[in-house]
Design brief:
Blueprint lengths: L6 E3 L8 E5 L2 E6 L2 H10 L14 E3 L11 H32 L3 H27 L8 H26 L6 H20 L9 H24 L9 E7 L3 E2 L5 E12 L5 E17 L6 H12 L10 E12 L7 E2 L4 E11 L6 E12 L3 E3 L1 H4 L3 E2 L12 H4 L3 E9 L2 H5 L4 E7 L5 E6 L11 H10 L2 E11 H7 L3
Parallel strand pairs: 1-4
Antiparallel strand pairs: 1-2, 2-3, 5-7, 6-7, 7-11, 8-9, 8-10, 8-12, 12-18, 13-15, 14-15, 15-16, 16-17
Helix pairs in contact: 2-3, 2-5, 3-4, 3-6, 4-5, 4-6
Length: 484
């Protein structure tokens, strides 16, 4: 009858880890003889005991010199896994938090929440990777790690696809492009090691992973590529002249002007630029029936623009700007159902030579569900005639006197922001009627040179558009209302 030793060291597993049992009970596992002595020391065995004594230790699958673990390789792999998961965790949280906390639409908030939750999962996967390349106390640690690597592959792959649409350099490219390569490396290693082994009900786990990836992809595609058209923009604009009255002390008429605006659509907006212009018309009248087309051609050539009027008994109309000003504060928002009215009074001489007064009210706006405007930066105007304004300065002889508003705009889907260069909203206003609004990534220039295709694309992307209201009244009616 042989006496079996109490200490049994099992054969090394695929990682080189050897399980240690005493009396049929597992007391630990060791990567090396040093770790084996530590385990035995905690159990009261002498530190200098002879590990090769067959009466004390039984070696299975190799003697005391069979320790195939390569600690440096295992620890290096573990550190790279943990580093990649932690970097991706922070990056996903940075992407998702602005949308989860501040997006206006439900789909965009869901996208942000998904990215934040994926960051939480990646944090858990980073902890699980320590266990998977360590003692593997948890059977599901390998499955959690490969799930985290799949999340990195899916999210960074989507970011790269979005980046290819414009192919613009951003600093975030230095994060998600290496992370995408890391995910391919990590998944290949984990697949080779069959890290899902030991996971209870692996088929259900695989089905859950596939379902999660599909639902996430559909949600991201919906919020990223779908431009909401179910809530179109509608504005009510009015510009009307009131009853004039004469000034007994001065030879002038006071003409009231009422300007009105209401957001009757379903989406709040930023008012990017606005202007109202009152013009007086002087025309040549004739009882002879001329050629309206000829009058129109002459009007177009004289005004230097592709517009003009054609009237049978009225020719050679000339317009003079009588009054011009701002209506609303640039960068301010107009919520759904919100209205704004402004009353102005301008003066006309009693013997004014105009026959018709016309007023035009124009606004340019941007949908708040598409972008977020830096109101503090945009609300500060730059004057073009001040040399200290730097790139906004332009000689008055060339540009006249203009106000320039410029501020950063961020898309409400943060996936767009991390795959594009910064975009800026620019508004130019002058009392002479200059009224320009644009969205572009190029620096501001007075020369007007820019990528007009990009500007049109960005205006559409951010839901920017214009609205206008016109009104006219005869000067004779004004004089009669004033009793002149």
């Amino acid at each position: 009858m042989s006496i079996r030793p109490w200490i049994i060291v099992e054969p090394p597993d695929s990682r080189g880890l050897r399980r240690v049992t005493i009396g049929g009970e597992t007391v630990g596992s060791a990567w090396s003889p040093t770790e084996l002595r530590k385990i035995l020391g905690r159990l009261g065995y002498p530190e200098n005991m002879d590990l090769d004594d067959p009466a004390s230790v039984c070696w299975r699958g190799g003697d005391s010199r069979a320790w195939p673990d390569r600690a440096w390789r295992r620890r290096s792999t573990m550190l790279l896994m943990v580093a990649g998961l932690l970097v991706s965790m922070v990056f996903n949280a940075v992407i998702g938090w602005p949308d989860a906390s501040g997006a206006l639409t439900f789909a965009q908030r869901i996208t942000g929440v998904l990215f934040v939750l994926s960051g939480v999962v990646l944090g858990i996967a980073a902890i699980a990777s320590l266990d998977y390349w360590g003692r593997r106390h948890f059977k599901a640690s390998g499955a959690v790690v490969i799930f985290g690597a799949i999340i990195v592959l899916a999210t960074d792959g989507l970011l790269l696809l979005l980046w290819f649409e414009e192919r613009e350099y951003t600093r975030y490219l230095l994060v998600y492009l290496p992370a995408l390569c890391w995910s391919v490396w990590a998944i290949s290693i984990l697949v080779c090691k069959k890290s899902w082994k030991g996971m209870p009900q692996p088929k259900r786990f695989a089905a859950g992973v596939v379902a999660t990836v599909l639902l996430t992809a559909v949600s991201l595609a919906y919020s990223t590529m779908y431009q909401p058209a179910s809530a179109p923009m509608h504005f009510t604009l009015k510009a009307e002249f009131g009853k004039a009255w004469q000034d007994n002390r001065l030879p002038f008429l006071h003409v009231p002007l009422t300007l009105y605006m209401k957001n009757t659509g379903g989406i709040p907006v930023y008012i990017v630029n606005d202007i109202y212009t009152v013009r007086g018309r002087v025309a040549v009248y004739s009882l002879e029936e001329g050629d309206p087309a000829a009058e129109w051609r002459e009007s177009v050539g004289r005004q230097g623009a592709r517009e003009g009027e054609a009237e049978l008994y009225v020719g050679q109309p000339n317009y003079t700007t009588v009054s011009s000003g701002r209506f609303y504060e640039s960068g301010s928002s107009l919520d759904v159902g919100q209205e704004y009215a402004l009353k102005r009074v301008f003066q006309l001489p009693r013997n004014v030579g105009y026959d018709v007064l016309s007023v035009a009210l124009q606004i340019s706006y941007m949908r708040k569900d598409r972008g977020r405007l830096d109101v503090e930066e945009f609300g500060f105007p730059h004057v073009s005639w001040n040399e200290h304004e730097g790139r906004y300065y332009c000689e008055p002889a060339i540009c006249g006197e203009q106000l320039v508003y410029r501020g950063r705009v961020r898309h409400n889907n943060n996936l767009i922001n991390v795959t594009r260069k910064p975009r800026y909203v620019t508004a130019v206003w002058s009392p002479g009627g200059r009224f320009i609004s644009s969205i572009s990534s190029v620096p501001y220039r007075f020369s007007g040179v820019g990528d007009y295709r990009e500007e049109r694309r960005e205006l559409q992307r951010y839901g920017a558009a214009r609205s206008r209201a016109d009104s006219a009244i005869s000067v004779a009616e004004l004089l009669r209302s004033a009793g002149v």
